[in-house]
């Protein structure tokens, strides 16, 4: 008899015992775990399959390549981000308060989910038109900010410039603050992320304010 290895081997679930949705979910979770530990560069379909305990070929039944796998994870991250932004901008807030709350929610959500956030900058996802569902998720999240700015324009809080351009600038601003937090550049504990986000968003959004006589809001392009 040969010598046994130094400990119990991890139990693997044979591919045939996974239901269709179960295996897809398991592969997504496995890939996210790899991203959290080693970054997007370490992700591959075969690596995710090994984590799950199935053959690499089984993963191709769900994702055509690494880009498709990353896109599916990023889509889930964007859907969750959209939900956080919508929840933050709940009815009862003034238009300016809602815009601020949505910006803060973007930053704090990113800080709480760094792996999903970093994934948005993966080279494989640079062209979102290659992944229609990911593009739709991006537009959904962006649309929350777009609608908030449009509502502020309608009340004269935000100047009457091109709505989408203003929303793009605001998105870039909060995204940059989020990156600094995720990378630890503020040098603060995670519990203070909300305070940093609020202070930063207030300064950044100050540039959107209307100046001079009230301007009429343009229609959204």
TrEMBL record:
It comes from the Bacteria. Keywords: DNA-binding, Transcription, Transcription regulation. Residues 44-63 bind DNA. Residues 21-81 form the HTH tetR-type domain. InterPro entries: Homeodomain-like_sf, HTH-type_TetR-like_transc_reg, HTH_TetR, MT1864/Rv1816-like_C, Tet_transcr_reg_TetR-rel_C_sf. Pfam families: TetR_C_33, TetR_N. This is TetR/AcrR family transcriptional regulator.
């Amino acid at each position: 008899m040969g010598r046994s290895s130094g400990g119990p081997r991890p139990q693997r679930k044979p591919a045939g015992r996974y239901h269709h949705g179960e295996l897809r979910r398991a592969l997504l979770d496995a890939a996210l775990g790899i991203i959290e530990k080693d970054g997007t560069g370490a992700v591959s379909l075969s690596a995710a399959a090994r984590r799950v305990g199935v053959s690499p070929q089984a993963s191709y039944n769900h994702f055509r390549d690494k880009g498709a796998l990353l896109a599916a994870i990023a889509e889930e991250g964007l859907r969750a981000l959209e939900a956080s932004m919508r929840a933050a901008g709940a009815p009862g807030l003034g238009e300016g308060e809602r815009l601020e709350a949505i910006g803060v929610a973007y930053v704090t959500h990113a800080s709480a989910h760094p792996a999903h956030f970093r994934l948005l900058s993966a080279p494989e996802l640079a062209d979102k038109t290659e992944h229609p569902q990911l593009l739709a998720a991006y537009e959904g999240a962006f649309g929350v900010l777009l609608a908030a700015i449009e509502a502020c324009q309608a009340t004269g809080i935000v100047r009457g410039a091109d709505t989408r351009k203003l929303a793009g600038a605001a998105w870039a601003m909060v995204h940059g603050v989020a990156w600094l937090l995720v990378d630890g550049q503020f040098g603060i504990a995670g519990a203070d992320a909300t305070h940093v986000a609020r202070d930063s968003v207030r300064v950044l959004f100050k540039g959107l304010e209307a100046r001079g006589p009230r301007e009429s809001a343009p229609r959204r392009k």
